[in-house]
Amino acid sequence: MALKVNATRMELLRLRRKVSLAERGHKLLKDKLDELMRQFKLLIAKYMGEREDLEKELMGAYAEFLFARAGMEEAGILDALRYPGAEASITTSIRRVMNLQLPVFEVEVEGDVRNYGMFDTPAELDDALEVYRRLLPRLVALAQQEKAISLLADEIDTTRRRVNALEYKLIPELQETISDIRLKLDEMERSNLTRLMKVKEMMEEKREAARRGDR
Amino acid sequence: MAEGTIAFIGDADSVLGFRALGVRTVVPESPARASKEFAELVRREVSVIMVTEDMAENLAEQIETTAHMTVPAVVVLPGVTGRRERGRETIRRLITRAVGVDLMGESAQQ
Predict the structure, then answer these.
(1) What's the structural domain count of chain A?
(2) Residue A113: which CATH number?
(3) Given Cys at both, which of A21, A80, A106, B73 links A147, Cβ 3.0 to 4.6 Å?
(4) Which residue range(s) make up the domain with A59?
(5) Which fold has domain B6-81?
(6) Mean pLDDT in residue range A199-210
(7) Mutate to test the interface with A, among B1, B23, B89 (most CBs of A within 10 A)
(8) Percentage above 70 pLDDT, chain A
(9) Of A37, A59, A132, the CB nearest to B21
(10) Which among B6, B78, B107 is the nearest to A140, CB-wise?
(11) Is residue A71 one of the residues assigned to a domain?
C-alpha cells in the first residue's frame, strides 16, 4: 500500500476528498506556472542584448573618463568630484505579477554634474561625465530587468516543483491507496458473504437433520 | 523606501565618475570591508546597488541572499579592468534553470 492507512470506508471517503482537493490545487498551480512563464518570456525578449550593449557603452565611458583623468592631477580630480553637484534620486514603485512584487525604478538626475571650476579641469571630463549621466538611467533599468528576471525565475522554479510533486507524487499515491482500500473492502465483503452462505448452509443442514430425526 | 539612492561598490577608477552624479560610491579597501559595506547598504534599503565584477566575486554569497528581496536590485557591471561576462552568466544560469532551455544561447546562435 502506498500510504499506511486503515482500510475503512471512512478512510476511503477522506482520501477521495483529498484527491479532489489536490487535483484542484494542481490545476491552479499549473495555470499560475503558465502565466509566470508567459511573463518571463516577455521579460527575456525585452532583456535580450541589453546587457551586451550597455557593457560596451560603459567600457567606452570608462575609457573616456580615464582619458580625462590622465590629463589632471590626482588631487585635482578628487577635488573636482568631492562635492557632487548633481543628485541622482530614484523612486521605487511596485509592480505585481501573480504573488510577486517586482520593483520599478525611476531615476532622476537633478542639477549639474559640473560642480567644479572651469579652469583646472579638461573639457574631456565634462564629456565623460555627461556620458555617465546618460548611462545611469539605463544601468538602473538593467538592474530592474535583472531583478524581475531573477525573482520570476525563482518563482517559476518553486511553482514547477510544486506542480510536479502533486502530479507525480501526491496524486498517484493517493489514488493508489484508494484503489488498495477498495480492493481490500471488496475482499472483505466477499469473504463475509461466503461466510454467511456457509453458516446458512450449516444451519439448513442442521434443520434437515432434526426434521429427519423427528420422523 | 520611496525615495531611494543608488550605490556603486568597486575600485576607485570605476566608481569615481559616478560620484559626480550623486551616486553613493563605496570603495572598500579589503574584502571584509566590502562585505560589511554591502550589508550596510542592504540594511538601509538602497534601491539599486551596482557592483563591479571584481567585487562581485567576493560578495557572491551576499548578492545571492538579496536575490529574493524586492530591493535592493543588485547589478553586476564590468569595472575598468575589463569585461568578464559575469553578470551575463548569472542571468543566463537563472534563465536556464527556470525554463529548462538556454534561451540566451539560442539567440546568440541566430
Answers:
(1) 1
(2) 1.10.287.3240
(3) B73
(4) 9-175
(5) Rossmann fold (3.40.50)
(6) 94
(7) B23
(8) 94
(9) A132
(10) B6
(11) yes
Q: From the CA of B64, how many Å to the nearest CA of chain A? A: 10
Whether omega for the bond prior to residue B72 falls within 30 degrees of 0, making it cis, is yes
C-alpha span between A207 and A80 (Å, rounded) = 120
Residues 6+ apart with CB under 8 A from B99: A37, A40, A156
Do the domain assignments include residue A212?
no
CB A92 within 8 A of CB B49: no
Q: Which long-range contacts (CB under 8 A, 24 or more apart) does A11-18 make?
A: A11/A181, A12/A178, A12/A181, A12/A182, A12/A185, A15/A174, A15/A177, A15/A178, A15/A181, A16/A178, A18/A174
In this predicted complex, what is the ipTM?
0.85
Give B-chain residues touching A50 at CB under 8 angstroms: none
pLDDT score for B2: 37
Residues of chain B with pLDDT under 70: 1-3, 101-110
Select the residue of B78, B97, B104 nearest A153 (Cβ to Cβ): B97
Tell me how far apart the alpha carbons of residues B81 and B100 are, in angstroms, rounded to a whole number. 33
Would you tell me the crossing angle of helices A123-165 and A9-47 to the nearest 10 degrees? Answer: 160
C-alpha cell at A188: 472483505
pLDDT band at A160 (very low <50, low <70, confident <90, very high): very high
Asked if residue A60 belongs to a domain, the reply is yes
| pLDDT per position as a tens digit, B10-20 | 888 888 888 88
Question: How close does chain B come to A169, measured CA to CA in Å?
Answer: 21
A98: cell is 501573480
